[in-house]
Every structure is written in structure tokens, then in C-alpha cells.
Amino acid sequence: MAKGLAALRNHWKKSTFGACLLGWGGHWLYGKHCDNLLRRAACQEAQAFGNQLIPATEPLKKATVFLNPAACKGKAGNLFEKNAAPILHLSGLDVTVVKTDYEGQAKKLLELMENTDLIIIAGGDGTVQEVITGLLRRADEAAFSKIPIGFIPLGKTCTLSHTLYPESTNQVQHITNATLAILKGETVPLDVLQIKGEKEQPVFAVSGLRWGSYRDAGVKVSKYWYLGPLKTKAAHFFSTFKEWPQKHQAALMYLGPTERPPEEPEEKPSRPPLYVRLYRRLRSYWSSPKELSQEVAPEDWEELKLSTIELSIATRNRQLDLTRTEDFMDICIEAESVSKGEFVHRGSEKMRDPHMCPEGSQYIQASRCILQLPEGTGGSFGIDNEEYEAMPVEVKLLPRKLRFFCDPRMREQMLQAAVQ
């Protein structure tokens, strides 16, 4: 014992390094053990769904998974296979996994997709944007848009996960919770933005569109990886070396919010008997002709010339209100008069919440808008964190267009917040 203590004292540097290495290794192994316990508990819960009896005449529900293996710096495929795939297969679903090999492939695959009961998106914001764009470009999108959609957050940016699932610092728990939420069947309706240029096919987004200096600086943050936690501030600081103040000029036309119609019941009422239908036909035939309906009033467009450091058009999906009576999207026009210090500070905040509308900005609620850019305008739009060439566009709100699976706890919180 004494010889051992003497050896540790004489070689204290090696002893300290060995103790640190042993402590780190123990902590890593304990984390792996906890992750395995989470996976096992999730699989046991999924097996309870798989053990449920179904009628012999009823086919298995078919789930089509669109997996982007390149998400999360190429780790998405492994994350899906270890954490989500076992849960889906144990649940009794007929699972088909479609892996995308290049950007834009999901849009093309959606055009060829046959009937399915569930659509599951495994990836990040870019994968979500591709899948819903391909889905809503179909000729039969009216029928396919009613298919519920599940989202398994595997990407670097997963904006929807903040709306659909509780916050979690453990990645394994976050993925397993999202996969189990698909099996539990609770859904919420989400708004979609239809963004159409003059020539291109429309693009669809569930978060929104950004155009301006904060977005341009944000996409360059990864170039300063060597600065560690200072990379975000560095990207915004170096962007101020360009022409200052940075102005983005455009013309905006928009329509105000629209009244939300009552939600259609999921189950249609049964067809009335034949004699009731005949009676209604005869009554409508013999009744006096109705007065011609009044002419529809022209749409009341508002026009605005703007000069801003950044413009954002966002859905209300971040702050989902299931009981609101009006449908609209948020348009935020930020003041161009901002100091360089404020720009750097606010840029860091916008990396956490890209569509935040800071104090002093002009805020507009609209159901539809047209953005006209001066000829020769360069730069890019950020549509759901995906880059598109800046051009004149028409943005139209499609309220409650798609239904996404969500954690039942989140839906309950939304309903409680609406009551309060």
C-alpha cells in the first residue's frame, strides 16, 4: 500500500492524467448505459402498440419514411437505425424507408409515391421543406395533404421539434419521444406558406422566409469554426465591414388576416335515407328562386415601400394557438438604423430564434403578400433555412394545411394556454 502511494506521489503527473481519463471514461460509459435504458423503455412501449389485435380483414398501416442520411453531418442514418427504427418496426407498422442520396430527391420521390397511411420525415428543416414541397406539388395534393405526417428530428436545425415535442437535453430521449408520439396518434394542424416566383414552381414552408443581413451573416458562421463559441459574433462582426448601413429595399403589397372557418369534423355524417333526399330535392325545386348573390367586393390590398436591414415572413407555428379565430402570417420589417454593436448582439439572438421581431420593427399581420424587388437585386432568401435565389415572389398562407403528429403533453399545454 505504502509503495503504491509512493509511486503515485513520485509520478503525480501521470497519476493525475490517468485519474482524469478514468473519470471521463466512466462518465462516457454511464451515459451509454443510460441511453440504452431509454431505448429499451421506448421499445417496450412500442411493443405494446404492436401487440394490439386488429381484425383479420384490416390491413397493416403503411408508413413511408423519408430519411436524409446526410443530416446532422452524416450521423442521421446511424441515429435513425439505433433510436427510431426499432420502435417503428415493433409498433406493428408496415415500414418502408426511403433514403435520399442528393438534395431535391425527396421532391421527385413524392411525385411517384403511392398510397400510404403515414408519412414520416427523418432529418432536419431541409428534409421537411423538401417533403412538404413535393407533397403539395402533386396533382392529387388535396387528398395526400390529409395524410398525417410524423417528424423525427435528426438534423442540425429542427425548428418544428420545439412546437411538437417537449424540450430535452438528451438526444436519444428526444428522438425516441418523437417516434413514440407518432404511435400515440395525437396530431395538430400546421399552417404552410406557398412561395411562388414568376417562373419557378411554388415552394412550401412551415417556418417562413427571411431576406436580409442577419440571414446572410448567419450562413457564414460555420466558416469561423476555429473561433469556438465566438464564431457567431465573429461572423456578424466581419459582415459589418461591408457597406454600412446595409439596406434592403423592396415594395410590399399585402392583404389583412382572414376569418378562420370552423374546422371540419373528421367523421362525415352518414348519408340520409332515400325518401329524405327525394323530399329535399322536391322542396328545392318548387321553392322560389333565390336572389342573386351580391357581387364580391374587391380585395383591399395595402401597399408599402420598405427599406430594411431584414424582412421576415413567418407562420404562427412557433406559437401555435388551436383556438384562434383569424388566420394570418407575421411580417416583420426591421429598422435599418441599427448600430454595429446592436447588429452583432442581435445577430446572436437571431441564431437561436431566426424569426424574432425585435422592438422598434414594423409588424404586419397578413394572409397574402407580394414582394417586389428592384431590378438587379442580388442575394438569397432563406426558406426554412434552405437557400434560394432572391426574386419577386408571392407568399400565400395555407391555414391548417397539414397535420403533424405531436406529443400529447404538448397538445394539452396548447389547449390549457388557450383556455387561460
Automatic annotation (TrEMBL):
The lineage of its organism: Eukaryota, Metazoa, Chordata, Craniata, Vertebrata. It comes from Oriolus oriolus (Eurasian golden oriole). This is Acylglycerol kinase, mitochondrial. Belongs to the AGK family. Pathway: Lipid metabolism; glycerolipid metabolism; Glycerolipid metabolism. It catalyses: N-(hexanoyl)sphing-4-enine + ATP = N-hexanoylsphing-4-enine 1-phosphate + ADP + H(+); an N-acylsphing-4-enine + ATP = an N-acylsphing-4-enine 1-phosphate + ADP + H(+); 1-hexadecanoyl-sn-glycerol + ATP = 1-hexadecanoyl-sn-glycero-3-phosphate + ADP + H(+); 1,2-di-(9Z-octadecenoyl)-sn-glycerol + ATP = 1,2-di-(9Z-octadecenoyl)-sn-glycero-3-phosphate + ADP + H(+). Its EC number is 2.7.1.107, 2.7.1.138, 2.7.1.94. It comes from the Eukaryota. It is found in: Mitochondrion inner membrane; Mitochondrion intermembrane space. GO terms for biological process: ceramide biosynthetic process; glycerolipid metabolic process; sphingosine biosynthetic process. Coiled coil: none annotated. GO terms for molecular function: acylglycerol kinase activity; ATP binding; ATP-dependent diacylglycerol kinase activity; ceramide kinase activity. Gene3D superfamilies: Probable inorganic polyphosphate/atp-NAD kinase, domain 1.
